[in-house]
Amino acid sequence: MTYLRTVQLSSTCITHKKIRPRILQVNVTDMLLVQNILVILVSFSYLISAEQQNKYEVYQKIQQDLESMKFENEARFMKTDIKIANMKERISQQDEIIRQQQELIERLQGNQELQKHTRQVSVQTKVAFTYRTSSDHSSLGSDQTIKFDRRMTDVSNSYSTSTGIFTAPVGGYYAFVLDTRTLPGRICWIDAVKNGVPIATNYMEAPSGQEDSETSFAVVRLDTGDQVWVRNKVYHGHSCGLDDLANFSGFLLYEDL
Ligand SMILES: *[C@@H]1O[C@H](CO)[C@@H](O)[C@H](O)[C@H]1NC(C)=O
């Protein structure tokens, strides 16, 4: 039938018209609807105006055409459904990629923290010293500072032999060892002090003609600039005397980070 072919031709034209994807998304259903209605209207107008003897033939042809139009529509909708499913799949794949990248970023940030920490540890301040007395202190006064004037080792030069005071170059935990020996027959009370407050004590009581020695150890927290030194306390009026081999050592255990 020529008239039906004409209608189909015009509908094909609409379908093949170049439609940009954005417009297609919005209008594909509307276009299809308009096209379908047009085909139906034109077909039925021919049916009504057809000669009585041709009506049955025309009617059959219209039915066939409607049937194929239905299939065509179904196929188009199916294609759209598949496209949507594909898009959903792609979106979920991209979500997964974003999630993995966020994980990676977090791991990298963790690594940076670790590197920062490692750097700090590797540049930790070094403090380690031992000083020794070089002569006897035969008569120590009350609160007199004992100066350890012989430098045995000192990596940070934080102990002053002229003042007898150790000054913490950084905050942290420090360990100190105090090693003293009396002159024969003397009674001594020697304190290691932090900013004037005792942190360790050597108490020695030598019988006459003999010496007595003691060692003490302390771990203390110091802020930068805190001071530690060794001083004599006159115990019950006893005159203290130390021999020339007293040792005072210290080192930094953990630096504040
Ligand atoms: C101090 O150290 C030296 C060397 O080890 C040692 O000869 C001396 O006896 C020590 N002093 C004391 C009081 O222990």
UniProtKB/TrEMBL annotation:
This protein's source sits in the domain of life called Eukaryota
Q: Which PROSITE patterns match?
A: C1Q
Q: Which Pfam families match?
A: C1q
Identify the keywords attached in UniProt to this record, alphabetized.
Answer: Coiled coil, Membrane, Secreted, Transmembrane, Transmembrane helix
The record's Gene Ontology cellular component field reads: collagen trimer
Keyword Secreted: yes or no? yes
Domain C1q as annotated: residue spans = 122-257
Q: Where in the cell is it found?
A: Secreted
Coiled-coil portions: 84-111
Does Secreted count among this protein's keywords?
A: yes
**What stretches pass through the bilayer?**
26-48
Q: Which PANTHER family match?
A: COLLAGEN IV NC1 DOMAIN-CONTAINING PROTEIN, EMILIN ELASTIN MICROFIBRIL INTERFACE-LOCATED PROTEIN ELASTIN MICROFIBRIL INTERFACER
**Which protein are we looking at?**
Caprin-2
Species annotation: Mytilus galloprovincialis (Mediterranean mussel)
